[in-house]
Amino acid sequence: PIAIEAAKLTKIYGSGNTEVVAMRDASMQVAQGEVVALLGPSGSGKSTFLTAVGLINPPTSGQITIGDKLVLDGATAHANLRSFRRRHIGFIFQKSNLIPFLTAVENVQIAMQLNGQSKRASYRRAMELLDYLGVADRAANYPSMLSGGQQQRIAVARSLANSPSVILADEPTAALDGQRGRQVMELFAKVAHEQGAGVIVVTHDHRSLDVFDTTYEMEDGILNRTKTTTMEVSK
Ligand code: ADP
Ligand code: ADP
């Protein structure tokens, strides 16, 4: 089954002689359980693609289907994007974006409480996730007391809290050393395989590419699949 289908996404910023075509006819299918690496030079359109699929920065034209729901068709949204995004998409940024005045566990809980879960249930689930990610002993710490790697693990826990069917990460390991970076990548693969989520990770780290099922490359706004190893995309 398909987790994500992006069909002919084009994004034009500005207009007239300030017009920039950041992405043209970019298409990608990601199966449930598939982990995709998105490579490409700076300015090639990777963030534009990822934020389009993440329903943060809608494309100028093209269709986005999540699961079996056509969510976005050009400028027309077929879902309440905010709540759809919160329920179905986990987004991880380059920097962890944790809320500084909440503890680690509260940072994870807040994602679930915004979805209407009780404090008690969200606490249990948050602690389970922190345990799963190896940072349960940091639950009561504020972000400023944690290392970059620990902060990123908590951000990953937060992104997984609502069991999203789609996980999108924009250079999530940029702030981490090679070993820690690899662990985060392996974690995405584990979650994808265990939960059947579709995962797209923008990365420059060529040493961890073996973790991914499929590799795409963006160049001047054109997206190409460059490697397929294990996954066959089928409906
Ligand atoms: P990457 O993530 O690969 O570095 P981006 O998607 O950020 O690439 O950018 C692709 C192109 O779109 C670049 O030419 C960039 O300057 C342009 N761009 C990105 N965001 C905007 C914006 N908000 N307004 C105008 N141009 C933008
Ligand atoms: P490891 O592979 O490191 O031994 P496990 O997969 O056995 O870790 O999980 C360790 C703990 O995390 C267990 O308590 C388990 O219930 C919990 N756990 C496992 N998978 C998930 C998940 N997807 N979401 C939340 N908790 C999980």
TrEMBL record:
<dbReference type="GO" id="GO:0022857">
    <property type="term" value="F:transmembrane transporter activity"/>
</dbReference>
<keyword id="KW-0378">Hydrolase</keyword>
<dbReference type="InterPro" id="IPR017871">
    <property type="entry name" value="ABC_transporter-like_CS"/>
</dbReference>
<keyword id="KW-0449">Lipoprotein</keyword>
<dbReference type="InterPro" id="IPR003593">
    <property type="entry name" value="AAA+_ATPase"/>
</dbReference>
<keyword id="KW-0547">Nucleotide-binding</keyword>
<dbReference type="GO" id="GO:0005524">
    <property type="term" value="F:ATP binding"/>
</dbReference>
<dbReference type="InterPro" id="IPR003439">
    <property type="entry name" value="ABC_transporter-like_ATP-bd"/>
</dbReference>
<dbReference type="InterPro" id="IPR015854">
    <property type="entry name" value="ABC_transpr_LolD-like"/>
</dbReference>
<feature type="domain" description="ABC transporter">
    <location>
        <begin position="4"/>
        <end position="235"/>
    </location>
</feature>
<protein>
    <submittedName>
        <fullName>Lipoprotein-releasing system ATP-binding protein LolD</fullName>
        <ecNumber>3.6.3.-</ecNumber>
    </submittedName>
</protein>
<dbReference type="GO" id="GO:0016887">
    <property type="term" value="F:ATP hydrolysis activity"/>
</dbReference>
<keyword id="KW-0813">Transport</keyword>
<dbReference type="Pfam" id="PF00005">
    <property type="entry name" value="ABC_tran"/>
</dbReference>
<dbReference type="InterPro" id="IPR027417">
    <property type="entry name" value="P-loop_NTPase"/>
</dbReference>
<keyword id="KW-0067">ATP-binding</keyword>
<dbReference type="GO" id="GO:0005886">
    <property type="term" value="C:plasma membrane"/>
</dbReference>
<dbReference type="InterPro" id="IPR017911">
    <property type="entry name" value="MacB-like_ATP-bd"/>
</dbReference>
